[in-house]
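Extended Data, panel c. Modelled sequence:
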Amino acid sequence: MLSLSNQELIRYSRQLLLPEIDENAQLKLKAARVLIIGLGGLGSPAAFYLAASGIGQLTLVDHDEVELSNLQRQILYKVSHIGQSKSKAAGKTLQALNNQVSLSSISEKLDEQNAKSLIENCDLVLDCSDNFKTRYLINRLAKQFAKPLVSGAAMGWQGQLCIVDNKDDNAPCYECLFANQGASSALNCDTLGVISPLLGVIGAQQAIAAILLLLGEGNLPQFLQFDAQSFKQSAFSFATSQTCTVCNKR
């Protein structure tokens, strides 16, 4: 039977003071299997906070290697990690943070075959990728396997968060909001730039949303936009699109 050790009770003591997170809730987090796709600017803070919060199993997926230009915003890595696999370097960093969390590092590019297996065998998906092709693939499979999805994006000074609880058959999906029209995958931080702390804001929000979904707590918005220059944040809902190829698939 799953239980919390004395070390875990001490480690998560400040979290356990919250009325929403008693020992049973912490055990839910310990039993959870979260898949994080993309270990860059968004995946870094999201993974840090989920590991620190006591998510029992984290699967880390990224096929890239650490580069010097990553260090401006990808806080999982240090200079000594340059040239190493991101997923493996991230695993080492997170293991050093919390050795009571089970970590699996996947240094493969996401495709139809491995994405199916990874998404089917998790409890929740964090999309921290940086291109539309990957986002649409993740969205379609998360819908297919009824897995809650928290998708983040950030460029320039603008960040956004899309939260889809696919356990609800009637929930609209990412493609309902952003129609798949072959959008260019070149639109990302590498081409447009990004202010470093913005990734921390959005990535941390992804982690909070994941925890709330796993605990069944909170009245979460479906979509959030954040402007780092004005500090203005807005939330709104959206409906299932009649032209969405995912939600209206026969």
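Residues 65 and 85 are 4 Å apart (CA to CA). This feature is highlighted in the accompanying rendering.
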